[in-house]
Write a structure and sequence with these properties.
AB_hydrolase_sf; alpha/beta; Pimeloyl-ACP methyl ester carboxylesterase; 2 domains; 39% helix; Rossmann fold; 14 helices; monoacylglycerol lipase activity; AB_hydrolase_fold; AB_hydrolase_1; two-stranded antiparallel ribbon
């Protein structure tokens, strides 16, 4: 069964997107763009870049215009001393889409990109057709211990050792070794399932400007206690937006329990759990990922933004009614919303 699921996607001739650039507010923003049709905006996670979507972009581009940016401070985008909060990232995505002449899009966000996608839907609801949240951040505080440690000053200084000659090859070697030691990404019981990808991301941070941008982004959302922001207090605003949640049941970065919390708090959302997959389900099982996304896109239709209804929802505020009837899950959602250690997005 696992061998079948791990088949690589067939190549799509002449469909690999080229890196493009736009200067907005004086900063160069890199992005990949290809295909024709309704717009899909793909947002990567912290420390990553748009190349993480390389395998699935050509297939999505057969029916959609795909835009996959390098978030500011990541990849080949500029890395200024700037605001790297998720609200600022949402503003940046609004500006990029506007510069490209795109009025609305379905937003697919992974990890940090999932948090940005939800913030984008909150700040600019008229621009969002659908939301697809993949192992998304910003639900509740649990997060991989490596990210908690990376947010501390001592480990921040240790990360500078990546700049030493030979450090990056050693990091990449360690990632390869971990992958071999713990089997394929779908091997049951792989405790360090997501560590090779975390090593891959850290190995891309030897450049001082990339390192500083990474730390600024991390500190905006994570401290030693875990994630600092939550979207649960405003999930009720997604009632008219089609939402698909995708998670791996072996996610060691953001536990699958977050998927169930978000699903309970988002009225009408769909939930797909990938058995054996980790924090990167679109890399662990790209065929299933594409099938899930394409089915969701074909089954749902964007609803026109209703400003009157939006105002009514804001006036009513968070209520228990939209939350699942499961008493334990309802309690878990309300406890997470009410935590005094959390900040709203």
């Amino acid at each position: 069964m696992y061998a079948t699921r791990m088949r690589r996607l067939r190549p799509v001739p002449d469909a690999q997107p080229q890196m493009m650039f736009r200067t907005i507010h004086g900063y160069r923003r890199a992005f990949r763009m290809t295909g024709e049709g309704p717009a899909l905006l793909l947002l990567h996670g912290i420390g990553d870049n748009s190349s993480t979507w390389t395998e699935v972009i050509p297939h999505l581009a057969e029916n959609f215009t795909v835009i996959a940016p390098d978030l500011l401070g990541h990849g080949r985008s500029d890395k200024p001393r700037a605001d790297y909060s998720i609200a600022a990232y949402a503003n940046g995505m609004r500006d990029l889409l506007s510069a490209l002449g795109i009025d609305h899009a379905t937003v697919i966000g992974h990890s940090l990109g999932g948090g940005v996608a939800m913030q984008f839907a909150y700040q600019f609801p008229q621009m969002v057709d659908r939301l697809i949240l993949v192992s998304a951040g910003g639900v509740t505080k649990d997060v991989h211990p490596l990210l908690r440690l990376a947010a501390t000053p001592i480990v921040n200084e240790a990360l500078k050792l990546l700049r030493l000659p030979g450090a990056v090859p050693v990091m990449r070697w360690a990632g390869t070794l971990l992958t071999r030691l713990h089997g394929t990404p779908l091997r049951p019981g792989a405790v360090l399932h997501d560590t090779p990808d975390l090593v891959r991301i850290l190995a891309d941070l030897p450049d001082p400007t990339a390192h500083e941008a990474y730390l600024r982004t991390l500190r905006a959302v994570v401290d030693w206690r875990g994630q600092m922001v939550t979207i649960l207090d405003r999930c009720y605003l997604t009632e008219s937006v089609p939402v698909q949640l995708i998670w791996g049941d072996r996610d060691t970065v953001i536990p699958v329990s977050h998927a169930h919390l978000a699903h309970a708090a988002m009225p009408g959302s769909r939930l797909e759990i990938f058995e054996g997959a980790g924090h990167f389900p679109f890399r662990d099982d790209p065929m299933r990922f594409l099938h899930t996304v394409e089915k969701f896109l074909s089954d749902t239709r964007p609803l026109p933004f209703d400003e009157t209804r939006w105002r009514q929802l804001l006036s009513t505020g968070t209520a228990e009614k939209p939350i699942t009837t499961d008493p334990s899950m309802r309690t878990a959602v309300l406890d997470a919303v009410g935590s005094n250690q959390r900040s709203a997005t």
